[in-house]
């Protein structure tokens, strides 16, 4: 087994590796997805600082705008024969 590769699934080595990863991670189950999300959403992260609520409102507004454009296109479609 080369360094950096995982042991085959279901083997004793894989179980030991998983056990070792769980015990050395520190946070355990308390970190979860919230801990991962907080790592991405920090003050020193590069880029725009937009809260998740603003992203949600902007995406719903964009979907509504596209839906209105589709409806207007259907209503005002004029066939030129």
UniProtKB/TrEMBL annotation:
Primary localization class, coarse? endoplasmic reticulum
Composition bias type Low complexity, residue spans:
1-17
Q: Does the keyword Transport apply?
A: yes
Q: Where in the cell is it found?
A: Endoplasmic reticulum membrane
Specify the superkingdom.
Answer: Eukaryota
Some GO term, biological process aspect, for this entry: which one?
Answer: intracellular protein transport
What is the topology of this protein in the membrane according to its UniProt annotation?
Answer: Single-pass membrane protein
- Keyword Endoplasmic reticulum listed? The answer is yes
Cite a single Pfam family from the UniProt record: Sec61_beta
**What keywords sit in the KW lines?**
Endoplasmic reticulum, Membrane, Protein transport, Translocation, Transmembrane, Transmembrane helix, Transport
User: Region entry Disordered: which residue ranges?
Assistant: 1-34
Annotated Gene Ontology cellular component terms:
Sec61 translocon complex
Biased composition, Gly residues: where in the chain? 25-34
Show the stretches that span the lipid bilayer.
54-77
Q: In UniProt terms, what function does this protein have? A: Necessary for protein translocation in the endoplasmic reticulum.
Family statement: Belongs to the SEC61-beta family.
Xref: PANTHER family: SEC61 SUBUNIT BETA
Name listed for the protein in its UniProt record: Protein transport protein Sec61 subunit beta
Per the UniProt record, the source organism is Hibiscus trionum (Flower of an hour)
């Amino acid at each position: 087994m080369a360094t950096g590769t995982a042991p085959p699934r279901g083997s004793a080595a894989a179980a030991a590796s998983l056990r070792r990863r769980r015990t050395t991670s520190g946070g355990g189950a308390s970190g979860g997805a919230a801990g991962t999300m907080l790592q991405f959403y920090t003050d020193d992260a590069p880029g725009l600082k937009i809260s998740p609520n603003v992203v949600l409102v902007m995406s719903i507004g964009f979907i509504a705008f596209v839906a209105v454009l589709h409806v207007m296109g259907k209503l005002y479609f004029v066939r030129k024969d």
